[in-house]
From TrEMBL:
The lineage of its organism: Bacteria, Bacillati, Actinomycetota, Actinomycetes, Kitasatosporales. The keyword ATP-binding applies. Pfam families: ABC_tran (PF00005). The keyword Nucleotide-binding applies. This is ABC transporter ATP-binding protein.
Length: 551
């Protein structure tokens, strides 16, 4: 259905092709996963299918890409629109209408479908993606995950034979991601839809893939094959595969279920390795004893009886939260639960309808920005929103000025976080992970005691995630308090001391990471599920227990 014949793409001004030697075929009615580290060209390959590359991006495409026989170089994206539905990485930039219902209908209108068919499909899709209660909503007022659902819904309604999806679950909560993938699988199985999908969080998608196309490194030829075979050689792999490799399981399990069946021996070994009587891993993240027990550490942030109304929606209801120095808190919960709203309230971007938010003596929404940056910093869900200059150097100079920091402070942080970024680069041309690092450096320039991150691992590969974890751990050890809103259960397991679960604007659980995630089917990381009832959270904990001498 989709055929790449010796394809290379060279962007204008680039010395080398971004991708080369791409040669594979996606048969009709298969779901093929495109995997690989950040920046290897996954989006470029997807763009060559939908026609965005080279028609909209510029550059030169050599070789041939065909979709159902149509050459994407000689067909513009609109000449492929009846055939190919595309969801890009940044849904907001693709929305054409204002409300949810109009957006779901738009693609069908442009194809001239009959009104009764359109009506029926809109209703079906609203139900399928849990959007019915949002149907009249202006898209601009939706949460990040709600927007991503609308973007997916709007490509499903015209029933295209081919779906091209670039990280379609990056903003979705774990349950919503499963639902969307189940819907896609049904389309593939029942209607013979062909799906080509790029995704970093392989733990979410690998079990749905018929085949994997791996781009192992920049410019390297793709590796194509059954998921288990490709995962055995891939530089990117989910925790279940990491555990399988550590334990030497062959064939590698790809699902929690398969791994559980293999895990008997490993569990026996670990039974003895776990600290006696507690059944808990030794290096489970915890604030240091002194901090935990120093009678009452002065909180860096205190939220009391906070309610926030946005439009007609009560986004937060009677929230109490205390954040102490040195602790890392993961805010989790369904799409639309109020996580971003709570972070925004902590930096004064939204005002309480009732209740209070305090940062020491200060009230964020009444504090001048120049003072606020020294108390709290937010890295927003879309780091681009924080960046306004034309070059990395100018961005850093502005950050130094705003923070009253010595010139060069921000630039030094950038270099520490991502060596190799040059001064003259436009922030727009940085990869997703690089932009996040720049935004983090900008925020850290003022060394705020409270650091807030909204979905920080969106679009990051496993290596970038590990670097982020190391940076955040070091900050926490220096006494910074960190609050991150995240759907990434693996990240929470790695880094959070505490998890706060929100539902419909209320706190429904607040406790140690181990206590909260172990008891939750949605929020438990893979290792926890595989090794239950033992309480392991991460592969690194298991590795440390198996090889204490290496740690
Ligand atoms: N329109 C463009 N013009 C110039 N260079 C581009 C363009 N789009 C992408 N690139 C460059 O091509 C390379 C591959 O980018 P691409 O977005 O395809 O990778 P990716 O594998 O999808 O990365 P990620 O996982 O971070 O989304 C990057 O170095 C990027 O900077
Ligand atoms: N300007 C607005 N007008 C009306 N409703 C809004 C507005 N902004 C947010 N909301 C609603 O408030 C609720 C909380 O949104 P918020 O962005 O805090 O959720 P979230 O937990 O961060 O979600 P996600 O996981 O999808 O990012 C959602 O139902 C959202 O639709």
């Amino acid at each position: 259905m989709i055929r790449f014949e010796d394809v290379s793409v060279t962007y204008d001004g680039a010395a080398e092709p971004t991708v080369r030697g791409i040669d594979f075929e996606v048969p009709e009615g298969e779901l093929v996963l495109l995997a690989g580290p950040s920046g290897v060209g996954k989006s470029t390959v997807l763009g060559a299918v939908s026609g965005l590359v080279p028609h909209f991006t510029g550059g030169t495409l050599r070789g041939r890409v065909t979709v159902a026989g149509r050459d994407t170089r000689t067909h513009e994206p609109r000449e492929l629109a009846d055939l190919v539905g595309t969801v890009g990485q940044d849904p907001l930039s693709h929305f054409v209408t204002d409300t949810v219902e109009d957006e779901l209908a738009y693609g069908m209108e442009s194809l001239g479908l009959a009104p009764d068919v359109m009506r029926r499909r809109v209703e079906e899709t609203l139900d399928l993606l849990g959007l019915a209660h949002l149907r009249d909503r202006p898209i601009a007022t939706l949460s990040g995950g709600q927007q991503q659902r609308v973007a997916i819904g709007s490509v499903l309604t015209p029933h295209p034979s081919v779906l091209v999806l670039d990280e379609p679950t990056s903003a979705l909560d774990p349950a919503a991601a499963e639902e969307v993938l189940a819907v896609l699988q049904r389309l593939v199985h029942d209607l013979g839809t062909t799906v080509l999908m790029a995704e970093h969080r392989l733990e979410r998608v690998i079990q749905y893939a018929d085949q994997v196309v791996l781009l192992p490194g920049p410019g390297a030829a793709p590796v194509l094959g059954p998921p288990a075979e490709v995962m055995a050689v891939s530089p990117v792999y989910p925790p279940v595969v990491a555990l399988g490799r550590l334990a030497g399981w062959s064939p590698l399990p790809l699902t929690v279920r398969d791994a559980r069946r293999r895990a008997g021996d490993l569990k026996q070994v670990l039974e003895n390795a776990a600290p006696k009587g507690r059944g808990e891993p030794r290096d489970q993240p915890q604030p240091t004893r002194s901090r935990q027990h120093s009678a009452h550490p002065t909180p860096v942030g205190e939220v009391r009886a906070l309610s926030v109304t946005r439009g007609r929606v009560q986004a937060l209801h009677h929230i109490d939260l205390t954040i102490t120095p040195g602790e890392t808190v993961a805010l989790m919960g369904r799409n639309g639960a109020g996580k971003s709203t709570l972070l925004n309230a902590l930096v004064g971007l939204v005002k309480p309808s009732s209740g209070t938010v305090r940062l020491g003596e200060a009230t964020p929404h009444r504090t001048a920005p120049k003072d606020l940056v020294r108390m709290v910093g937010l890295v927003p869900q879309e780091p681009r929103d924080l960046l306004c200059a034309d070059t990395v150097a100018a961005e850093c100079a502005a950050a130094d000025r705003d923070a009253g920091a010595a010139p060069g402070t921000c630039r030094a942080l950038v270099t520490e976080l991502l060596p190799g970024v040059t001064d003259g680069t436009h922030p727009r041309d940085l990869s997703e992970g690089q932009r996040l690092a720049l935004a983090l450096a900008v925020v850290l320039t003022a060394r705020p005691p409270l650091l807030l991150l909204d979905e920080p691992t969106r679009g990051l590969d496993y290596a970038a995630k590990a670097r982020l974890v190391a940076v955040l751990r070091a900050l926490a050890a220096e006494g910074h308090a960190i609050v991150l809103a995240t759907h990434d259960v693996e990240l929470a397991a790695e880094i959070a001391h505490r998890v706060v679960l929100l539902a419909e604007g209320e706190v429904i659980a607040d406790g140690s990471t181990a206590d909260i995630v172990v008891s939750s089917p949605s929020f438990a990381p893979q290792v926890t599920k595989i090794l239950a009832p033992q309480h392991w959270l991460t592969v690194s904990q298991v590795r440390a227990a198996l090889h204490p001498e290496a740690g």
